[in-house]
Design a protein that fits this description.
The complex is a heterodimer.
Chain A (H helix, E strand, L loop, with lengths): L4 H10 L25 E6 L14 H10 L4 E3 L6 E3 L2 E6 L4 E6 L13 H12 L17 H4 L14 E5 L2 E5 L7 H4 L10 H5 L1 H6 L7 E7 L3 E6 L13 E6 L3 H9 L5 E2 L7 H8 L3 E13 L5 H4 L3 H10 L3 H7 L5 E3 L9 H4 L14 H10 L8 E6 L5 H16 L5 E6 L2 H9 L7 E6 L5 H9 L13 H12 L3 H18 L2 E13 L3 E2 L15 E2 L1
Parallel strand pairs in A: 1-10, 14-15
Antiparallel strand pairs in A: 2-3, 4-5, 5-7, 6-7, 8-9, 9-10, 11-17, 12-16, 12-17, 13-17, 18-19
Chain B lengths: L1 H28 L3 H5 L7 H10 L6 H13 L12 H36 L4 H15 L2 H15 L17 H26 L3 H8 L4 H30 L2 H6 L5 H10 L3 H29 L7
Classes of the chains: A alpha+beta, B mainly alpha.
Chain lengths: 545, 307
């Protein structure tokens, strides 16, 4: 593998006392493929937090698997993010509220069952029902009848949602509770995947070895250590796998995965550890990917706290935003794996999708003099101090918070007015956020579920929205969002969202910090590696040399 | 002897109950695990409430604890968030860590005691000083440094071994992680043995043995070493527990899916059943190891008797 076979065996002999049985470690074959499409890709993986099922998986590790074994009505183009019909033949509507979905012929699950209208409707009803406790149940909340199967408290009043009706094997209709023109484009999210009857008949068995309709089938799954996926030869879709399969190996630490990549034991890591960013160019050369993903990190102001929410404070909030030297922090701390934010969405949306490099305007440009002036005009920091908070168990959060505070302190020139309040675990941080307990700006990371500008704005800043943790409220903003959702023309809808975003620039309910990039590194064994908008590798495209 | 063992076993009951309660309370204090299940998104209140209810999280702490203990006595350690039974996790992780600990202890004993005897017998000479300096270095270098350095050298640079351990974790692959894990304790074992040997070498019984004309080897192994091992055995007994629990760093570096990894994961995810389950077993291991050490005293030194 690394050429010096003689030297290796000599070293082996010397070290025989050390590791008698471990010799030949680097000589693992990678499936024996030689460019004929039968090679196996060995990739790093993390232990999924929840059981792998479409409506219950809401993090990227389980999502990876769903991405390989499921195809929904639409799929996002990995490059442009455009929603393209996959299982759907067409999704028609005349009023942006009633949709008729027609599905293509010929799709089957890997166990032989046909993919029919019922496969979708049953899956969605399952995902929405309160008794099934699915994490992604809210994705179905705009379908009529959701409150019946998923009441805010108490038992469900119905078994299925009245808004879903199966017409025949190939068609079903959907009635939404209110107009939402972009709804068909949200259907690429994995929660909307179809499910075979086997899922409902033997749920426990299905969870042990999930069965879907995607380009791969699961050969074996050992919870906590790994999963072997193999190409499904009878796959009818256009994006059949170009390799023989994927082996996902669980790593408890991304540093270890990187070491294994260096040693040639795996082919792909999709999370290059921060410590290695300095070496990555040397180690991998152009086999390192670093591109913006649909993730933005912001500092949200607790507007429910009078000190931050009262009139006039918007100047202080804007001032703080201008006091942060984003360029320097992303370069020094993140080695350019973050991109300074210029609006509240993500460049991965593309210009057509609604990304606006002028969305935040001057308020996101570093200007210490102006920052100082604005904060003074606004009456100064509440109590002369500001405390920045985040969990610090992952993601170099401690480092950038210190840097942000230094940047603010330097700009204001009044000594250490900005301090950091680190929280030990993500769980603790989350629960305090959800209980609205902060008295200073707190971190909020947002990964969009689908490449739509709506997903970056509505859940976070609409009055009373599910993830509006700063309790921001603005009548004009809400009106614009409502109007956008009723627009039948997508381009117009995007425009409305962009004008809504302009309002955020004046009010500054949250400081956009930076867009998070997806990163990956791969070995010489594999080629054509790319990441999609969700920073998940596009496995089916990978070729093995 | 028998009565002593029974008395010790009975003493374990309050320790067991107290420690499980403390751990349960600490994990509980970490915050609401359900909120973290939803990532950066707001948990849907109805779903979150249902999950809390099913996990017994909507009850007051003391009820949760009684419920949990009730389950434990029926052999049910609860379920991790990914749907796996904690007993399954225990069955998968403990053998791996046990093997790792065993490798570490064996290395510690063989190398540590040998070095200790050699330097203890040659107190003040060059061998002794160099062993002392070596152990000092080993003690001062943190485990993660030695771990990463050895992994890089053997796994990547020289390509002698796999840098990571495969899920089955056979003994062969655990040798390097075992060395890394054992290094710090090894230094302590060496120093303890050295001091003990150096002290006892002037004891009357050793002089008598030498005067009787016994061969040197027999004097050292039967008379000197056996009497010098008591502090070392005490140390190793407590070390078994700390090695198993403290393997987190080593397990992370070498990607070993053992106890340390599961506890770390459980804490990050605020999963009380996993953490309490694993630590409970650790507590039992710790208690048993200490009992074993106390019994070994009697074997090593017949003057010690238990009634």
């Amino acid at each position: 593998m690394r050429g010096a076979t003689h030297a290796k065996w000599a070293a082996c002999a010397v070290a025989v006392a050390l590791a008698a049985t471990a010799c030949g470690g680097g000589a693992d074959t990678s499936g024996g493929g030689s460019g004929d499409g039968s090679g196996i890709v060995r990739s790093s993986w993390g232990d999924p937090q929840n059981p792998i099922e479409p409506a219950n998986t809401n993090e990227v590790q389980g999502g990876k698997v769903l991405d390989m074994i499921f195809r929904g009505l639409v799929k996002y183009d990995p490059k442009t993010g455009e929603a393209q019909n996959t299982v759907a033949e067409k999704i028609d509507t005349t009023d942006s509220q009633n949709f008729t979905v027609t599905i293509k012929d010929g799709w089957t699950f890997s166990n032989g069952e046909k993919v029919t209208a019922k496969s979708f409707v049953d899956a969605w009803n399952y995902g929405a029902h309160i008794d099934n406790k699915q994490n992604n149940s809210t994705f179905f909340s705009n379908i009529e009848g959701y409150d019946e199967v998923h009441p805010e408290s108490g038992a469900a009043k119905a078994k299925t949602m009245s808004g879903l009706v199966v017409k025949d094997d190939k068609t079903f209709t959907v009635k939404l509770s209110e107009k939402f023109s972009l709804w068909p484009q949200t259907l690429g999210y994995q929660a909307f995947s179809p499910l075979p009857q086997a899922f409902f008949k033997d749920h426990a068995g299905w969870l042990k070895k999930p069965v879907g309709n995607g380009p791969y089938v699961i050969e074996s799954y050992t919870k906590g250590s790994g999963m072997k996926l193999r190409k499904w030869d009878d796959y009818k879709g256009e994006d059949a796998a170009k390799n023989g399969g994927v082996d996902l190996n669980v790593y408890t630490d991304n540093n270890t995965a990187y070491t294994d990549l260096m040693a040639g034991n795996i082919d792909l890591v999709d999370d290059v550890p921060a410590k290695q960013l300095k070496n990555v160019k040397n180690d991998l050369g152009d086999r390192y990917i670093n591109q913006p993903a649909l993730i933005i990190q912001t500092l949200v102001f607790p507007l429910y706290d009078k000190n931050w929410g009262k009139d006039g404070m918007e100047k202080v909030r804007r001032g703080l935003s201008m006091a942060i030297n984003r360029e320097q922090i992303t370069k020094q701390i993140f080695q350019d794996t973050r991109t300074p934010a210029k609006d509240w969405t993500s460049p991965a949306l593309g210009d057509k999708g609604g990304y606006d490099p002028e969305g935040c305007g001057d308020a996101c440009k570093y200007d210490p003099a102006q920052a100082k002036k604005l904060i003074e005009e606004g009456g100064g920091l509440p109590g002369g101090k500001v405390t920045v908070t985040s969990n610090v168990d992952t993601g170099s959060h401690r480092d950038w918070m210190d840097a942000v505070c230094n940047s603010i302190n330097n700009a204001l020139g009044k000594g250490a007015v900005c301090t950091v309040d680190p929280v030990g675990t993500f769980a603790d941080f989350r629960s305090r956020t959800a209980q609205f307990k902060w008295t200073g700006p707190f971190r909020s990371g947002w990964q969009a579920d689908y490449p739509l500008i709506q997903n970056f704005l509505q859940p976070l800043y609409y009055t009373g929205a599910s993830s509006n943790y700063g309790k921001f409220t603005d009548k004009k903003f809400d009106d614009l969002v409502d109007r956008a959702n009723q627009e039948s023309d997508t381009a117009k809808a995007v425009e409305d969202f962009q004008s809504a975003q302009k309002l955020l620039g004046d009010q500054m309910p949250a400081i956009p910090l930076w867009y998070q990039n997806g990163s990956a590194g791969y070995s010489e064994n594999v080629g054509d590696v790319a990441l999609n908008q969700f920073s998940v590798p596009v496995y089916e495209e990978i070729t093995v040399n | 002897m028998g009565r002593y063992v029974i008395r010790r076993l009975l003493q374990m009951i309050p320790v067991f109950i107290g420690s499980t309660f403390l751990i349960f309370f600490m994990v509980y204090a970490l915050g609401d695990p359900v909120a973290a299940l939803f990532g950066d998104k707001a948990p849907d209140p109805a779903t979150a409430a249902r999950i809390r209810h099913d996990l017994y999280l909507d009850q007051p702490l003391w009820k949760q604890y009684l419920h949990y203990m009730g389950q434990i006595f029926q052999g049910d350690f609860g379920t991790a968030f990914n749907g796996q039974k904690v007993t399954e996790l225990l069955a998968a992780a403990y053998p791996v860590t046990l093997r790792l600990t065993l490798v570490a202890i064996v290395i510690e004993l063989i190398v540590g005691v040998t070095l200790g005897v050699v330097s203890g017998l040659r107190r003040g000479r060059a061998v002794d000083s160099s062993v002392l300096i070596l152990t000092l270095i080993v003690i001062s270098v943190p485990t993660f440094v030695t771990g990463y350095v050895l992994q890089f050298l053997f796994g990547v640079k020289w390509d002698v071994i796999r840098p990571t351990v495969s899920p089955d974790a056979p003994f062969g692959e655990l040798i390097l992680p075992g060395i890394v894990l054992a290094l710090v304790s090894l230094a302590y074992v060496t120093r303890l043995t050295r001091t003990s040997i150096a002290e006892n070498v002037r004891a009357d019984y050793v002089r008598t043995a030498v005067a009787k004309g016994l061969p040197r080897r027999r004097v050292i192994t039967r008379h000197l070493l056996r009497n010098s091992l008591i502090p070392v055995i005490t140390f190793i007994g407590t070390d078994i527990g700390s090695l198993m629990g403290g393997a987190i760093v080593t397990e992370k570096i070498f990607n070993i899916h053992g106890v340390g990894y599961q506890i770390y994961q459980g804490i990050l995810r605020n999963n009380a059943p996993t953490v309490v389950g694993f630590v409970t077993i650790l507590v039992i291991v710790f208690l048993l190891a200490n009992l074993l050490v106390d019994l070994l005293y009697a074997v090593l030194d017949p003057r010690i008797r238990y009634a």
